[in-house]
Structure formats: structure tokens, C-alpha cells
Amino acid sequence: MRITACRACPRLVAWRERVAVEKRAAFAADEYWGRPVPGFGDPSARLLVVGLAPAAHGANRTGRMFTGDRSGDWLFRALHRAGYANQRRSTHRGDGLRLTDCWVTAAVRCAPPGNAPTPGERDACRHWLEEEFDRLTAVRVVVCLGGLAWTVMHRLLADRGGAVPRPRPRFAHGARSETSGPVLLASFHPSQQNTFTGRLTEDMFDTIFAAARRLVGDLG
User: Fold this and answer.
1) CA 93 – CA 81 distance, rounded (Å)
2) Which domain covers residue 191, as residue numbers?
3) Which of 6, 12, 73, 127 is deepest in the core (most CB within 10 A)?
4) Residue 150: helix, strand or coil by DSSP?
5) Which residues pair with 104 in a beta bridge?
């Protein structure tokens, strides 16, 4: 996978590799991935889930998007309840998780300091999402986890000549955007900042994936 060799953003390269050496005490015995993280799932997926970026001690450690951290625990539980995942949790790349009709990825592929990529880093990484999107020819619905993913997907579709709403719909949990391509659904990101405070509940998250499931069926 060409993406795993990318070194385009010096700040992100330095951070992901520093974290992989210094590690977190709970994972001191683990060999960290410490590289850009590719998306994964069903190549025939009609549902695409786009997050922000790998977590420093989650996907930057495991090498699989949303795997090994609490945000991923929330996501895979929701995907399991919606029938997209065969198990409720993912801890490492070889744990048996399989996604059906779903692909999981992120707008930025390296763990950023403070979970905050710069606009330049976001833009430098976008071509990887574009290439991935081109390969996923069956996608009908995109669930955007957070405002950055919402913005990136609208810009990606608009720059390719697709019809998108103007002005762009304001990001809010449950927002829906009809484009000439896939329908975009917005959800708060399942970060600890949102889940610990109750800004995002499991019922709220389930509502998003239930809506995605219905739309996928309606759109064929």
C-alpha cells in the first residue's frame, strides 16, 4: 500500500514516529504501527464512514483505522448493532473483525498532535481519500464523523464537478446533504470529549446508522 510510505507532512511524520517510540505505559510491550493508516472494509461497500484521523495510541498503534481506542469501541459497537460488523470490538488487525457493505476511513491518515491537523495537512492528505473513493464505486451513503470529515467530503465532491448544496449545509448531528453522488449524513465524532460529556449518546449514534441502513436500501 503506497499510503503507508507517505512522508508528505513533516509535523505529522515526526509526531506519529515519536509516539511509536515513546509509547503509552499500557502499551509498552506493543510494536506500534507508526505510519499512515489505510482504510479498510468491504470493497463493495455501499456505506462509507469517514472519521478525522488515527488516534495516537489507537490506529497509530494497531495500523487499522478506529482500532484499539474508545472512539473505535463506540464505532464498532454501533456498526455491529446496525449489521455492518461481525463483532462488537476491534483491538488489533488480526482480531477477526469483518465489515460487510461498509468501509471505514479518515480524512487524515497520520495521527496529529492534539487530534488537530492543520488545513495544509488536511489538504495534502486528501488525494488518498480521493483514490479510495474512486475504488469504492458502490458507495451510496457517507457518514461523516465530525465537522472536518463533513467539510472534506463536500469539497471532494464539489471539486470533482458533482452537484452539492450551496451554501453547504451546516454541520450538526443528524444533518443530511443530498448530492449528485452519495447522500452525506453528519454525526458527532465518537471522541471521549463527546461521549464522556453526553453530547453523543449510543442512541444518537445508532440513529445515524439506522438512517444510513434505510438510505442504502432505498437507493439500492
Assistant:
1) 21
2) 2-219
3) 12
4) helix
5) 40, 49
Q: How far apart are CA 138 and CA 118, in angstroms?
A: 31
When pLDDT is cut at 50, 70 and 90, the band that residue 161 belongs to is: confident
Alpha-carbon distance of 77 to 201, in angstroms, equals: 12
Q: Which stretches does DSSP call E strand in 11-158?
A: 40-41, 47-51, 102-106, 141-145
| CATH classification at residue 133 | 3.40.470.10
44-99 pLDDT, tens digit each: 999 999 999 999 999 999 999 999 999 999 999 999 999 999 999 999 999 999 99
How many domains, in total, are found in the chain? 1
pLDDT at 220: 60
Q: Give the residue among 213, 170, 46, 65 at the shortest CA–CA distance from 128.
A: 65
Omega into 10 within 30° of 0, i.e. cis? Answer: no
Segment 34-52 shows an average pLDDT of 98
The number of CA neighbours under 13 Å toward the Cβ of 203 is: 1
Beta bridge partners of 200: none
Are 15 and 110 in contact, with CB atoms under 8 Å apart? yes
DSSP state of 171: P
**Nearest of 183, 139, 148 to residue 53 by alpha carbon:** 148
* pTM score, whole prediction: 0.97
> pLDDT by residue (tens digit) across 6-33?
999 999 999 999 999 999 999 999 999 9
